[in-house]
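Q: What structure does this chain adopt?
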Amino acid sequence: MASLQLILPSRPASTFRPRRRLIQCTADRQALFSRIAPVYDNLNDLLSLGQHRIWKRMAVSWSGAKEGDNVLDVCCGSGDLAFLLSEKVGPYGKVVGLDFSKEQLLIASSRQNLRSKNCYKNIKWIEGNALDLPFADSYFDAVTIGYGLRNVPDVNKTMAEIHRVLKPGSKVSVLDFNKSVKPLATSIQEWMIDNVVVPVASGYGLADEYKYLKTSIKDFLTGRELEKLGLETGFSTAKHYEIGLGLMGCLVATR
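A:
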């Protein structure tokens, strides 16, 4: 049976002094992902022609997760990366999928209940905050975050938290849209969002929810900036790989 928990911040409430703007930003994004949760998986398949499954397998492979490991998927959504991690670590490993959207976690839990592989029983779903991970220092053997870093209100804090909970020598694999520095690639990406992504999403009544994509990519970091962020956060190495014809990217950083 799938396990779904609500985890509250583990630190004293007096230490939390978030700005009102940060709270509003988090609330808005949480509401957005809750609205798209029911059709999120179908849209991913349609919009990427199924290619997102390949990119996610690559990200999990780059995380270095192996048999028996204790691993974390941050911003896990409906669970794609968590399920792939489960296959990597096997029935004697442990997987935690963390997300701030209870609706996404309920879908992930339902998907888990429908799967027969024994390894999928090792996944625990937790409702929590990527900016304040409710885990001890040096707790995980590998961490993944797919299409989540671009959507958190503070990328520096999120990367610092991931660094904190990773064991020394372990890796984080960060999969997301690639913010290209090449004008042609950027133009193609924006054209696809305007002429493919948003029109398809509108068929589900979610045009406004997916229009944010273009802005979120513009506000995101380039591959080189992500590498710099990883090193400044304290990771010993950080390498960004462009995949999916340069439309996607994956940062791999070692603590």
